[in-house]
Automatic annotation (TrEMBL):
GO terms for molecular function: sucrose synthase activity. Transmembrane segments: none annotated. Residues 13-112 form the Sucrose synthase N-terminal domain. InterPro entries: Glyco_trans_1, Sucrose_synth_GT-B1, Sucrose_synthase_pln/cyn, SUS_EPBD, SUS_N. It comes from Nostoc parmelioides FACHB-3921. NCBIfam families: sucr_synth (TIGR02470). Residues 570-725 form the Glycosyl transferase family domain. Residues 258-550 form the Sucrose synthase first GT-B domain. It catalyses: an NDP-alpha-D-glucose + D-fructose = a ribonucleoside 5'-diphosphate + sucrose + H(+). Belongs to the glycosyltransferase 1 family. Pfam families: Glycos_transf_1, GT-B_Sucrose_synth, SUS_EPBD, SUS_N. This is Sucrose synthase. The keyword Disulfide bond does not apply. Gene3D superfamilies: 1.20.120.1230, 3.10.450.330, Glycogen Phosphorylase B.
Length: 805
């Protein structure tokens, strides 16, 4: 690394440029700078100094600046956080005389950062988790991060090949341990060892070969049991033959594809818990609040898909003869003051399932004035440990046994999942959905300034605990893990950081550990489907939604359209600063040409300031009204402040497509973007922010549909260019529409998601079986952090709540 930038200090021009950059940054009066500020300042210097373009990009100092993600100006030196490649950050210190440029340890950088906020402590707690991952297999190529299942399959196959006899015994023990409520599955007492299993496989294959392929398992199960094979191999002679043959191949010649195919058939998952705490989790009238809507939809659809997939697996495994049924539970909180919803109902069956339920458990009665009501995700922390204990009892009673898998959703749900999984000793899957730390710049460094409102010290600690304790982590996109060459990933932001006066994280997560897996969600294709499927569209629903979008005058609808026939620019989002609808309105307002070509239609849940539930929301609503007035957009804009049912939202996408419109997701940052999937599968050409996971959804080779929400003029030009291309070549809109719809249908579907999720559960459960010591020490350390840091800080929030009420 030093050699790459060493020429800077041998070149007077480059050395002078670096010195001028540091001076320019220092003149701002700040000490801490992120990549955008650094690049902007360097670009200004190059322009003022009339440097050629190559100097900005290709000189040694230019390369240093391109790789630098943070700069800290200390009294006697300048500190650089350099990221030469994804998932790899280094700290370098440059002396004030530019004489030395040295690699520095992380803890030294964290000390310097603390001094910036006058919070240096020589004996602060240091959290370094690197030693807990040293014995684990590690992914070497950054391009394979997020493909943990494929990596583990290859790794396990290499281990089996290296010592087949030892691994045959391990596979035997794992299969021998499979049970359902005390009933042995797959292997019974008649097979006492792995060696005996290998022999019996040949006997079983010979027996099965004599049967008709479609012979039902119920007609010959007694013969198989005599050989030592219990239910679970299949429901027909052919299916059982295929499964046993896969195991035979795995023992004889281990291949990753064979291992994956065999593990997919092993009946090891019957009961699943999905933990989603802070949202309003229900199916009717309320489906989350603005801050939780996407998560609630995700969990509901995932639960339905899981239950359906498990029903299929149990049938194919031949376990119907035992009367086994899958059982899926969404665990959430019961809210007594439920505002007319079903959130005060303890048990609610999921529509279109046989045995999937919402189980609601109330928060402990610390203070009914608080716990009987909905509580913000930032205030929920004191109640989670007691909730987990209460939920454990109800889950065991509801299941009449232990679950096989617990999935946490968001920071609070993951903490409850961690506590439950630890007590019940079952597999724990972590799904963050969104990590608050990377969304809120400097939130760790200045955590004390916002502690009373956001309690980030508790949340970031919970994140650190759960991501390390989880058996595996699911992300919707690769960006969530390691970002892009230009931006740090959500999980990567936990690699090292300081929370002054609380602790230093020197090494907080191993991004190269195979626990990370990219498994994107699907979209409900019964609700969201292409506009061209006219036979599936309800004419009455279409007429109703068309009236809402284009004509109806209502207290919850603002604006009218002078020319409703123009193609709409459509956006669906809650009113928050991060979703940036105000930026979109300003982008539209500034472009007269865009207004001439199109209308802007916004679908939000609120329209008026008196409907807002927090100051930020009120500010955004007021700002949006002011922008509309300032640019005189009435006649060009419709703003619907309505919470529409999913069926109406789906038809809204299709109606916009009927008008040859487009969809736009203008967020400043988006971890994934559920509405992007919905719009694309509906056949809407979709433009989305380039900051976050939408990069992968679009897979846009020429960047034509990726937008920079900070570049209003550039975005307007890009939208206008698309409309003009469609005017010139009408088939262009159709081609884009079909491509986007097919991409979502093929890659982002719940069937694929669920298959991968269950495969992950089985392979990581097997991994924990054969290597329990590799995770036990790490999880014990997480328990220590829970009791040492999390719990005392959560108790402080509780004390505040009690004193306020």
């Amino acid at each position: 690394m030093h050699e790459l930038f060493h020429p800077i200090f041998d070149n007077s021009e480059e050395k002078a440029a670096l010195q001028q950059l540091i001076i320019a940054l220092g003149s701002s009066g700040q000490h801490y700078f992120l990549r955008n500020d650094i690049l902007h300042t360097f670009s200004q210097y190059c322009q003022q100094a009339q440097k050629p373009t190559y100097f900005y990009y290709s000189s040694s100092v230019g390369k240093l600046i391109q790789y630098t993600h943070e700069i800290v100006l200390a009294e006697d030196s300048t500190w650089f956080v350099v990221r030469p490649r994804i998932a790899s950050q280094e700290v370098w210190r440059l002396t004030s005389d530019l004489a030395q440029f040295d690699s520095m340890p992380i803890d030294a950088f964290l000390d310097v950062s603390d001094r910036l906020v006058n919070a240096y402590e020589p004996n602060i707690l240091e959290i370094d988790l690197s030693s807990f991952y040293e014995a684990s297999p590690s992914i070497s190529d950054p391009r394979n991060i997020g493909q943990g299942l494929a990596f583990l399959n290859r790794y396990l196959c290499s281990q089996i090949e290296a010592d087949p006899q030892y691994w045959v015994e391990l596979v035997y023990l794992a299969l021998r341990g499979l049970q359902y409520d005390g009933i042995n599955l797959m292997i019974g007492d008649a097979i006492p060892s792995g060696i005996h299993l290998a022999k019996q496989i040949q006997t079983a294959i010979k027996f099965l070969s004599s049967l008709p392929p479609e012979e039902p398992y119920a007609k010959f199960y007694i013969e198989l049991q005599k050989l030592g094979f219990e239910p679970g191999w299949g429901n027909t002679a052919q299916r059982i033959m295929e499964t046993i043959t896969l195991l035979d191949k795995l023992i004889d010649s281990p291949q990753p594809a064979v291992l994956e195919a065999f593990v997919a058939r092993v009946p090891a998952v019957f009961r699943v818990v999905l933990v989603s705490i802070h949202g309003w989790v229900a199916q009717e009238d309320v489906m989350g609040r603005d801050e939780t809507l996407g998560q609630v939809i995700y969990v509901l659809e995932q639960a339905r898909s899981l239950e359906n997939k498990l029903q299929q697996e149990i049938k194919l495994a031949g376990l119907e003869v035992l009367g086994i049924q899958p059982h899926v539970i969404i665990l959430t909180r019961l809210i007594p003051n439920c505002e007319g919803t079903y959130c005060n109902l303890r048990l609610e069956k999921l529509h279109n399932t046989e045995n999937a339920w919402i189980l609601r458990v109330p928060f402990g009665e610390f203070n009914p004035e608080i716990t009987n009501n909905w509580i913000s995700k930032f205030e929920i922390w004191p109640y989670l440990e007691t909730f987990a204990l209460d939920a454990e009892k109800q889950l065991l009673a509801q299941f009449q046994g232990k679950p096989n898998l617990i999935i946490g959703n968001y920071s609070d749900g993951n903490l409850v999942a961690f506590l439950l999984a630890r007590r019940l000793k079952v597999t724990h899957c972590n799904i963050a959905h969104s990590l608050e730390k990377p969304k809120n710049l400097f939130s760790n460094l200045y955590w004390q300034n916002s502690e009373e409102k956001y309690h980030f010290s508790v949340q970031f600690t919970a994140d650190l605990i759960t991501m390390n304790a989880a058996d595996f982590i699911i992300t919707s996109s690769y960006q969530e893990i390691f970002g892009t060459p230009e931006s740090v990933g959500q999980y990567e932001s936990y690699k090292f950081f300081t929370m002054p006066h609380l602790y230093h994280v020197v090494d907080g997560i191993d991004l190269f550990n195979p626990k990370f897996n990219m498994v994107p969600p699907g979209v409900n294709e019964q609700v969201f489907f292409p506009y061209s499927q006219t036979a599936d569209r309800d004419p009455n629903l279409s007429k109703h939604v068309h009236d809402l979008l284009f004509h109806r005058q209502d207290s919850q609808i603002f604006g009218y359209l002078d020319q409703p026939q123009k193609p709409p620019i459509f956006a669906v989002a809650p009113i928050t600063s991060i979703k940036n609808l105000t930026g979109l309105a300003e982008c539209f307002g500034k472009s007269q040409e865009l207004q001439a070509h199109s209308n802007l239609i916004l679908l939000t849940s609120k329209l008026n300031i008196d409907e807002s539930t927090n100051p930020e929301e009120a500010r955004e609503i007021e700002k949006l009204h002011n922008i509309i007035n300032h640019y005189q957009l009435n006649g060009h804009i419709r703003w619907l402040g309505l919470r529409l049912p999913n069926q109406e939202v789906g038809e809204a996408y299709r109606l916009v497509a009927d008008y040859r419109g487009i969809y736009i997701h203008f967020a400043r940052y988006e971890a994934f973007g559920r509405s992007i999937l919905e719009a694309m599968i509906s056949g809407l050409p979709t433009f989305a922010t380039k900051f976050g996971g939408s990069l992968e959804i679009l897979e846009d080779k020429n960047n034509g549909f990726r937008i920079n929400p900070t570049d209003l003029e550039g975005t307007a030009e890009k939208l206008l260019a698309f409309f003009q291309e469609c005017d010139t070549h009408p088939e262009h809109w159709q081609e884009v529409s079909q491509w986007m719809s097919q991409r979502i249908h093929q890659k982002y579907n719940w069937q694929l998601h669920t298959s991968q999720l269950l495969a992950l559960t089985k392979i990581y459960s097997f991994w924990n079986f054969i290597r329990p010591e590799s995770s036990e020490a790490r999880v014990r350390y997480m328990e220590s952090l829970f009791h040492l840091i999390y719990k005392p800080r959560a108790e402080q929030i509780l004390a505040k709540h009690m004193s306020c009420h």
